[in-house]
Automatic annotation (TrEMBL):
<dbReference type="Pfam" id="PF00126">
    <property type="entry name" value="HTH_1"/>
</dbReference>
<feature type="domain" description="HTH lysR-type">
    <location>
        <begin position="1"/>
        <end position="58"/>
    </location>
</feature>
<dbReference type="InterPro" id="IPR005119">
    <property type="entry name" value="LysR_subst-bd"/>
</dbReference>
<keyword id="KW-0804">Transcription</keyword>
<dbReference type="GO" id="GO:0003677">
    <property type="term" value="F:DNA binding"/>
</dbReference>
<keyword id="KW-0010">Activator</keyword>
<comment type="similarity">
    <text>Belongs to the LysR transcriptional regulatory family.</text>
</comment>
<dbReference type="InterPro" id="IPR036390">
    <property type="entry name" value="WH_DNA-bd_sf"/>
</dbReference>
<keyword id="KW-0238">DNA-binding</keyword>
<dbReference type="Pfam" id="PF03466">
    <property type="entry name" value="LysR_substrate"/>
</dbReference>
<dbReference type="InterPro" id="IPR036388">
    <property type="entry name" value="WH-like_DNA-bd_sf"/>
</dbReference>
<dbReference type="InterPro" id="IPR000847">
    <property type="entry name" value="LysR_HTH_N"/>
</dbReference>
<keyword id="KW-0805">Transcription regulation</keyword>
<dbReference type="GO" id="GO:0003700">
    <property type="term" value="F:DNA-binding transcription factor activity"/>
</dbReference>
<dbReference type="GO" id="GO:0032993">
    <property type="term" value="C:protein-DNA complex"/>
</dbReference>
<protein>
    <recommendedName>
        <fullName>HTH lysR-type domain-containing protein</fullName>
    </recommendedName>
</protein>
Length: 310
């Protein structure tokens, strides 16, 4: 049994097809297949079986894959511990970030991070919260940037921001004339929402009054983009809720933007890692770069009312 075989095994479990798994490991498909077959012969069990949709691990195969992920995580930690002793920030950083944060916060830190540490290869992927959590546990991501708390004992959370929710209101809506808004003001009429699967959607519904969860309009439109929701409000009517990072360049001169009366509802944004993560200087560097690029008022201080994401 070799580490190479374990890497092939994990890649096959991740991608569930031989060709793609081989591509990700930079080997030919016959090479990967042969090495997995050798591992099966050595262990004396069938690790995968073919299905109409590709391949699936057998019951014993799923257990072997989980142990393989743990072994590879330990090997990665060993290499990273040596790098830390040498004072190096090198290698790969696999970062998962939720879509409602990605387009606003990634441009703030990505270029500076790679310029400071040219030997660091940064891979950023937009994923839903549940996907990030699972990939952190499976050693497929190093760091997650997402909304917390997660209440998962396998993960460590480093609070970063407390980002206020703001109302984005069309000129024809009754809320447009108010200086501030309150959750009791939010009714279902003309509320635009993100589609199912986004934690931001759940938070919006947790802020609104129960009646706001339903709508009597003859149509619905649920977007996957906060920018689309803002455009719907600007060009049509109604209102939506947006995170403050999405309106930083217009917050002081756009009368469509309304703050909530104190205490403001906020979403807690954190850097999240597996408890076995050892590259703490890297985590600190990432945190410092982000905090240096956002307004101080957004930094986590416990002043707002945290809205749960589920």
């Amino acid at each position: 049994m070799t580490l190479q075989q374990l890497e092939y095994l994990v890649s096959l479990d991740t991608h569930r097809q031989f060709v793609l798994a081989a591509e990700k490991c930079f080997v030919s498909q016959p090479t990967l297949s042969m090495q997995v077959q050798k591992l099966e012969d050595e262990l004396g069990v069938l690790l995968f079986h073919r299905t109409k949709g590709g391949i699936e691990p057998t019951a014993i195969g799923a257990k072997v894959v989980q142990h393989a992920r743990e072994v590879l995580r330990s090997v990665k930690q060993l290499k990273e511990a040596v790098q830390l002793e040498k004072g190096e920030l090198v290698g790969e950083l696999r970062l998962g970030i939720i879509p409602t944060l990605a387009q606003y916060i990634v441009p703030l830190f990505l270029l500076e991070l790679v310029e400071r540490h040219p030997q660091l290869r940064v891979q950023v992927e937009e994923l839903q919260t549940e996907q990030i959590v699972q990939r952190l546990k499976d050693n497929r991501l190093d760091v997650g940037l997402l909304v917390t708390p997660l209440e998962d004992r396998a993960l460590q959370e480093v609070p970063l921001l407390e980002e206020p929710f703001l109302a984005y209101v069309s000129a024809g809506h009754p809320l447009y004339g108010q200086a501030t808004v309150a959750p009791a003001d939010l009714e279902a009429h003309e509320l635009w929402l993100l589609q199912q699967g986004h934690c931001f959607r759940h938070q919006v519904l947790n802020i609104c009054t129960p009646a706001a969860a339903t709508d009597n309009r003859p149509f619905t439109y649920e977007s996957g983009s906060i920018e689309t929701l803002k455009q719907l409000v600007r060009l049509n009517r109604g209102y939506t809720l947006v995170p403050e990072l999405s309106v930083l360049d217009e917050i002081n001169n756009n009368p469509m933007i309304k703050r909530f009366a104190a205490p403001e509802p906020v979403r807690e944004v954190s850097l999240v890692v597996h408890h076995s993560f050892v590259r703490l200087p890297l985590l600190t560097t990432l945190r410092d770069i982000i905090l240096d690029r956002v307004p101080e008022r957004l930094q986590a201080k416990g002043a707002g009312k945290k809205i749960r994401w589920k």
